[in-house]
Amino acid sequence: MLITQEIENLLNRGARKAGVDKKLSISFSNMPKLCDFQCNDAFSLAKVFNENPFELASKIVENLDKSEDYIFEVARPAFINIKLTDKKLAEIANSYLIDEMGGVEKRERKEKIILDYGGANVAKALHAGHLRSPITGEGLKRLYTLLGDEVISDVHLGDWGLQMGLTELQLYEDGLLDYYFGTSEIKPTLTLEMLNEAYPKASARKNIDSAFKEKADKWTLKIQKKEQPYYDIYQEIRRVSIEKIKENYQALGATFDLWYGESDAAPYIDKAIKIIKDKGLAKESEGALVVDVAVEGENIPIEKKDPKEVQRYKNPMPPAIIQKYNGAALYATTDIATILMRNETIRDVDRIEYIVDARQKTHFIQVFRVCKMAGISPKNQQLIHIGYGTMNGKDGKPFKTRSGDTVKLSDIIDLLIDKASEKLKANNVKYDKTTALKIGVGAMKFGDLINNVGKDYIFDLDKFLAFEGKTGPYLQYSVVRINSILNKINDEQGQFFVNSEDERNIIRAILKLNSAYEIAYNEKSLSSICGACYDLASAFSTFYNNYKIINEQDKDKRASYIALIKLVKKKLEQALNVLAIEIPEKM
């Protein structure tokens, strides 16, 4: 049982004895020298029971069971302050040290979750905009797993849309696909460099050349119908792209159970459309097939002041287009088909969560509503879009190169290695590329995750890579420092007991860190874990600077100190593992 729940149970028993039948809750105190937790409910309950708040709080405390573990006091105007005794803190620390989970409790109800993150597009180079999805997704996957859920991660590649037709058509017009069309005997070796050149070129052309765009639409449809040689070329492009995508994700520490793409959902498209039609949800609009997903209060016409005025609507929610005029599928179609595929091939899924740019909010509202209306997603299944903010440069705009181009993910990884290498050289630390990668990627991940997932943030590598302050390297160094101490001593065993306020602060920080997991779970953002992790590292640093651990002459104290730093190491490693931040051997 979590310590907060134990205290709340005590308080609520006392409240019932005092005639208060409302549930009380506690929070961590922001004045740790005064108390560890506090309950502020007497203020609101006093109005309900028509009593003086201070007197009500006092009555509750007077009716509490006697405890050797907690000290309850009432402070004006009506706070109930709770302090843990040194004996209780030591008991908690020693139990966490031997507990595999370190005091973290699994959730009561285990859920099966499909986590959709990554979202790389085949035939396109991964860039800065692809960073937040795998970083957040990998962290949430590890968090959910730690707390007992069954998690299935799917990269969900974008490999079935217009970009495939655009890329192939451009390669064809550049004379690189002659072999496939029988006009050359030399089979080309398609490379990522070719694709990175072809797609941007084709994407720009489609905006100014309607004939090229129309031809690309037809080319895309041929791929989706698996016509040859279009489909063979597509498979080769997909193979070349995925090799590099896997390499990039591996560098970021992002892993996936499934490497499915939109193409894997393609066989379910016709069935999904039939289900939607049979439900009477689909209608034709300008040759396309659409579903009206507006709910009450949306798409209400605003009265025109002038008959010639363009009709406007309140809270407009456009219909979901599920099939183009030429029969081709769209992103919405493949996403709907993917949900159908997942529910038919993976049974009893409680939640499907998508970690995708917040700007895709409307798209997911449309897709989710269609799936619920058509019964493609069961009523009790949650469909959740976790929208992340943009990663911006120091100018506050989306991160770009000086020339205004999108920064490739591979270039960012190289930059992280270079910057980390500079730091290690400055500290006279012998290192290799792997060490620099761990520090660089760890710095970037923490710099991302400490922000609420839905917020934009500034990508500032110099700030992220600082070895002091609220940064990834500071946390990594805390564990490296503890390992250095433990390597200098024998495997000494002993019990922890409270000697000082510095040690109390460490145990408090561990309690906050344990509670942060549930907060992060509910918020679907890892920022609370990052903040609590830093607080623990900071509390350890103060303790480390104030006490001589190895040279302590009192054997009991020395054993207690060693037990404490082992617990700090255990908790930091657990948290950093959830954040998918690796710990180097040296820094």
Key words describing this protein structure:
587 residues; alpha/beta; four-stranded antiparallel sheet; four-stranded parallel sheet; globular
- Overall pLDDT score: 93
Radius of gyration: 29 Å
Unreliably modeled segments? none
Strand arrangement, largest sheet? 1-2-4-3
**What share of residues are in beta strands?**
5-15%
Describe the biggest sheet?
A: 4 strands, antiparallel
Shape: globular
Distance from N terminus to C terminus (CA atoms, Å) equals: 37 Å
Describe the structure.
The chain starts with a helix and ends in a 9-residue tail after the last helix. Strands 1-2-4-3 form a 4-stranded antiparallel beta sheet. Helices cover 50% and strands 10% of the residues. The mean pLDDT is 93. It is built from 20 helices and 15 strands. Helix 18 (501-523) runs antiparallel to helix 19 (527-546). With 587 residues, the chain is α/β, with parallel strands linked by helices.
Topology at a glance:
Blueprint: H1 3-17, E1 27-28, E2 37-39, H2 42-49, H3 53-62, E3 70-75, E4 79-84, H4 86-98, E5 112-116, H5 132-146, E6 150-154, H6 162-173, H7 192-206, H8 210-224, H9 230-252, H10 262-265, H11 269-278, E7 282-285, E8 288-291, E9 300-301, E10 313-314, E11 320-323, H12 331-345, E12 351-357, H13 361-374, E13 382-388, E14 391-392, H14 409-426, H15 433-449, E15 457-458, H16 461-464, H17 472-487, H18 501-523, H19 527-546, H20 555-578
Parallel strand pairs: 5-6, 5-12, 12-13, 14-15
Antiparallel strand pairs: 1-2, 2-4, 3-4, 7-8, 8-11, 9-10
